[in-house]
Fold:
Amino acid sequence: MQNYENFSKKIKTLFIGQDFRYLPTCHSTNEYAFSLLSSEDCFEGTTILTDCQTAGKGQQNSSWEAEPAQNITLSVILYPNFLKAQEQFYLNISVTLAIHDFLSHFVPEVSLLKIKWSNDLLYQNQKICGILIQNLISGEKIQKSVVGIGININQKTFKYPQAVSLSQLTGLMYDLPFLVQKLLENLESRYLQLRSKKFDELRQNYYERLFGFQEWVWFRKQNQTLQGKICGIDSTGRLQIAFSERLQAFQYKEIEFLLERM
Structure:
């Protein structure tokens, strides 16, 4: 069990993590966050963290593997009602950039740390972080968001061969409460940038860190293996890929990266 006593007094943020709820074990921090939203008025930035998530999920109900008390597993409640529904991918950009900012202080070589569209971070083509953002949209605006984050920190072995932890990369063991503090500070910094609607700056920062951007990458599409060049992200967050000079756009799960071929 980690020591998160007086955590909100230590963190240097305006609102993210100021309402901090630590659960030794939890079914799903995202589900817990939604239960809070349905039962009480939560402050923006309310953060739920657990040492042991028993039913963690990634995008489209994929599972998330994490040993108890070895990694960062948390969810943050946000109210990005300044974003139109069609702008929601900018929240994803903001969150992934914040995690990249955070991890860049610890990984051996920052140039090997990449954001993989749409919800992962990779180090040398191995997954170190997964993200699940769930939005509640009313009318044309995003009213509420729950940002779920899982980062591999001290875990030493994984069933999934493409997974890696920070400890495996550096040989060090990390103080999780200290890392959580730094992560939340980075999240707030990028969220404030988003709130200021610095979309062009965020997009440029994202492309600078995007895995495979302007490179030829192997994909699987409808049981076909093929190479394409990642050209960018369209206005709705779809991945734009050029195949033989023809540009196509894909939603999540419509195309699969073949990391083992890279």
Observations:
- The mean pLDDT is 95.
- The first strand starts at residue 20 and ends at 26.
